[in-house]
Specification:
- Helix 1 packs across helix 8, helix 4 (101-124) runs parallel beside helix 6 (166-185) and helix 7 (207-216) packs across helix 9 (266-280).
- The strands form three sheets. Strands 3-2-1-4-5-6-10 form a seven-stranded parallel beta sheet, with helices on both faces. It has a three-stranded mixed beta sheet with strand order 7-9-11.
- It has a domain at 11-198 and 236-260 and 302-323: Rossmann fold, CATH 3.40.50.
- It is of the alpha/beta class and 360 residues long.
- Helix content is 44%, strand content 15%.
- The chain is globular.
- The protein has 13 helices and twelve strands.
- Helix 1 links the parallel strand 1 and strand 2 (36-40).
């Protein structure tokens, strides 16, 4: 049942049919009373099946459109008058950015700049009270900070950017633009940096769903290099709760790290997934699933470690991750087992071609 205070004006999110965006839509409708509008271009990783259970909710509206379409964005802003905008829409997969960096620049920099310009124009026309309460949340990534050495301290919000992939470079570029629009025009921008998310509805090119989907088809589980790359793993529902807190209480011009205390290397994580599958699928002929692990050539510029210091959001906004990693990982694996029809729906011919070109 919604518990938060009601607002007359809706919020607008971009990319709400993707992984984190669709989880945020569900979280919002489970906890809030105000309306949510979802603008999504429905590229390969956007999936309306992620939202079919709430498609008829009167507090939810879907708009098919690109954030770079300035005329459409301008008309939408003036028609719906959102009190806040959360920008999830992005090209996000590092591997794809190495093969086709131009699409990452087009979406994450140019189209996002067009969105930012339209938001600024809309915001300037608001009355003073609406200007003060408006928020633009720019959802970014820990990858903009670059790679850490094994014993380095976690990155803080003020750490310098050192992106090492076209993806992270494109996100860093827009972060600079968003920051500049706050400094120059006083637009109420807040940037968030999250660590590796996992949970339901994640497109199976990312590590956890990729391993589950490959295992269920008795296919090799590809591990880049030695598999010792360290990552910080954040359950997507905890990320959504953090964004909700930042939307209500975050300080314009600030940035917030959203991470967890769950750091482990990729090989250890894949072994945990295999152990879970052995337990959950005791009659499978592929057991033990560890036999499917296959090391492949490492990708260019592969960062060895990401780690976020989330003490700021914990201290200032009272956010803490819930549950424990093992519990959330089990729930995630079980979700893919229960929803294999969803998986089969996204395993298109294009996806199979991508897998073959990337890992074989």
């Amino acid at each position: 049942m919604p518990t938060s205070r009601s607002h007359s004006n809706p919020i607008l999110i971009t990319g709400g049919a993707g992984f984190i965006g669709s989880n945020f839509v569900h979280h919002w409708l489970n906890t809030q009373e105000s309306h949510l509008i979802n603008l999504d271009a429905l590229t390969y990783s956007g999936n309306l099946n992620n939202l079919k259970d709430i498609a008829e909710d009167p507090r939810y509206t879907f708009i098919h459109g690109d954030v770079g379409d300035r005329d459409k964005v301008r008309a939408l802003l003036h028609k719906t008058k959102p009190r806040a905008i959360l920008h999830f829409a992005a090209e996000t997969h590092v591997d794809r950015s190495i093969k086709t960096p131009e699409s990452f620049v087009n979406t994450n920099v140019i189209a996002s700049y067009h969105l930012l310009e339209e938001i600024l124009g809309y915001w300037k026309e608001l009355d003073q009270a609406e200007k003060q309460s408006f928020r633009f949340l720019n959802i970014s990534t820990d990858e903009v900070f670059g790679s850490l050495e094994k014993n380095d301290a976690p990155t803080v919000e003020e750490s310098p950017y050192r992106p090492n992939s076209p993806y992270s470079a494109s996100k860093a570029a827009f972060n600079h633009l968003a920051r500049a629009y706050h400094a120059t025009f006083n637009l109420p921008v807040i940037t968030t940096y999250c660590s590796n998310n996992f949970g339901p509805y994640q497109f199976p090119e990312k590590l956890i769903p990729l391993m589950v989907v490959q295992a269920l088809q008795s296919k090799p589980l590809p591990i880049y290099g030695d598999g010792k790359q360290m990552r910080n793993w954040l359950y997507v529902e905890d990320h959504c709760k953090a964004l909700n807190l930042i939307l209500e209480n975050g300080v314009p011009g600030s940035s917030y790290n959203i991470g967890s205390d769950n750091e482990l290397d990729n090989l250890t994580l894949v072994n945990l997934i295999c152990t879970l599958l052995d337990e959950l699928l005791p009659s499978s002929p592929s057991r033990p699933y560890k036999q499917l692990i296959q090391h492949v050539a490492d990708r260019p510029g592969h960062d060895r470690k990401y780690s976020l210091d989330s003490s700021k959001i914990k201290k200032e906004l009272g956010w803490t991750p819930t549950g424990n990693f093992e519990e959330h990982l089990r729930n995630t694996v079980q979700w893919y087992l229960r929803n294999f029809a969803w998986v089969e729906n996204v395993l298109s011919g294009d996806y199979r071609l991508w897998m073959a070109s990337q890992y074989e």
